[in-house]
Design a protein that fits this description.
By secondary structure, this protein is α+β, with helices and mostly antiparallel strands. It has a single domain (about 1-60), classed as Alpha-Beta Plaits (2-Layer Sandwich). It contains two helices and four strands. Bound molecules: iron/sulfur cluster (SF4).
Length: about 60
Amino acid sequence: MKISVDENLCIGCGACVNTCPQSFKMNQEKHKSEPINPPGDPEEKIKEAKDNCPAGAIKIEE
Ligand code: SF4
């Protein structure tokens, strides 16, 4: 599994980092989330983060 964040869409809310701290980290300069690959959280949690992203910025590549 590989994840990506579209930084043009991300609004930096931090929700994905809270849900999956081993799969996303905040870029403090840009105030955007960045993916950590390979992601360290369970697949279900990553899907939850994707579904809950208010900007639809997270993509999962199987
Ligand atoms: S949940 Fe979405 S909008 Fe919020 S920080 Fe993560 S990628 Fe960005």
